[in-house]
Amino acid sequence: MKIAIAGTFIVLLALLLCGCAGSRAARKSPGSYQRGQASWYGGHFHGRTTASGETYDKEALTAAHPRLPFGTIVRVTNRKNGWSVNLRINDRGPHIKGRIIDVSEAAARRLGMIGDGVVPVSVRIVSKPH
Fold it and tell me: What percent of the chain is helix, strand and coil (3-state, nearest 5)?
């Protein structure tokens, strides 16, 4: 019995150390979703380096999420008007409590949220990077 418990402990410790256990958001599968507030970022950040190492392009259909793996495709829907767009996660954020995603300026235009700045959204995972 002691050997089985020790073996289980070692396996769990190994998973944690190698990162295989991952964060809850990183383990979510396509179809998983969350609801909350979205904001957008544009000109001031245009040309800067994102957390993924890419150069931020305000005209690209990209977004920042606190935990989803870079390259994840999400479907963001503005719950005020029903407009949706698919975005690729390439940055980290938002860094304001209560917000679940920051979208690029181009995405904000497609979602009809430029004037509002912050809108209620749902975010659904479409696909994860390989």
Answer: 25, 35, 40
Superfamily of the domain at 28-127 = RlpA-like domain (2.40.40.10)
DSSP string of 90-106, one letter each residue: EE----STTEEEEEEHH
Characterise 119 by phi-psi region: left (phi > 0), alpha (psi -120 to 50), beta (else).
Answer: beta
Place of tokens 């990209």: 62
Q: Where are the domains of the chain?
A: 28-127
Work out the mean pLDDT of the chain and round it to a whole number.
84
- Token pair 């998973």: residue: 15
Q: Say yes or no to pLDDT of 1 above 60.
A: no
The 10s digit of each residue's pLDDT in 34-69 is 999 999 998 889 999 999 999 999 999 999 999 999
